[in-house]
Task: inverse folding
């Protein structure tokens, strides 16, 4: 009888620990100036800035940001950044077992990244036309070349 009570007490303590255990919620938040720029994290569209996405693993992330107008033309320079997301001390081995499994509350690990975008100054229309004609002439010469 006493053996059953000890077993039940031990089982109850284990269940209480795992039920009350928290977890670590990891997010990357990307903010841009100006807002509403498209944000790609690891070559996947995350959304328009400001955007927060959850992640599981720490490490280097490739972040690409581009701002377009209603016609789909770039209004600001496309920015590519490689950000190293470092694990906090409580996520180092073997401390991560306690923070992930035994800590009684939820831990939030939010990494906020801010970027300022540079506005593109489109060249004058006359310059665009000259460049287009030059490219067309180069293409015509390559097509008429004997080794084509």
Result:
């Amino acid at each position: 009888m006493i053996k059953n009570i000890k077993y039940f007490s031990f089982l109850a303590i284990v269940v209480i620990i795992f039920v009350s255990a928290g977890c670590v919620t990891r997010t990357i938040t990307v903010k841009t100036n100006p807002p509403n720029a498209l944000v790609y994290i690891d070559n996947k569209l995350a959304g328009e800035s400001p955007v927060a996405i959850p992640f599981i693993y720490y490490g280097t992330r490739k972040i690409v940001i581009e701002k377009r107008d209603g016609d789909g033309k770039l209004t600001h320079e496309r920015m590519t950044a490689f950000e190293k997301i470092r694990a906090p001390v409580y996520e180092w081995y073997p401390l991560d077992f306690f923070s992930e499994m035994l800590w009684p509350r939820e831990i939030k690990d939010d990494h906020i990244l801010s970027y300022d975008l540079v506005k593109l100054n489109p060249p004058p229309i006359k310059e665009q036309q000259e460049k287009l004609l030059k490219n067309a002439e180069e293409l015509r010469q390559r097509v008429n070349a004997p080794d084509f």
